[in-house]
Request: fold
Amino acid sequence: MFLLTGLLGTGKVLSLIMVVEACGGVKRTVLTSELLCPICSCYLLSESSGSWDAARKDCRDREADLVVIDSPEEQSFLATITQSYSWIGLNDKEQEGQWKWVDGTPLIWTNWATNEPNNGGFMKLYEEDCAHMRTDDHRTWNDCSCTSSLTWICEKIP
Ligand SMILES: [Ca+2]
Ligand SMILES: [Ca+2]
Ligand SMILES: [Ca+2]
Reply:
């Protein structure tokens, strides 16, 4: 969503981030300085854009990781909060065609767009080894070059 930087109290610069917490189907948006999610899963939508690796580093620096989407319910929830092409925690960098979630969750449920992943397709200029969510109604997934600059979604599980 967005990132606010404010001067609070001692003059220390504190970054405030917008976090969406998902609790049994109820979502709550919290403005906070840390990605702390004691009870429910939290999602952070980045304001800035970057490569898949930069996105993952940002999430890990927050003791979270890029989002792992393992159910249609989670996918539907994310569709209500994302507004831009966003990296998710899925890649086939290690072995072409072997898509893996960052936390090792088996890839059982997927939401690929029609004819994706295509690794760049017939006329490809480069490999496509990182997955992102698109902005169509179903927020379908596409593989694209890991160095593309996109926003991202971090997920923190309590
Ligand atoms: Ca998840
Ligand atoms: Ca690939
Ligand atoms: Ca593709």
Notes: Residues 52-61 form the longest helix (10 residues). Confidence is low (pLDDT under 50) at residues 1-13.
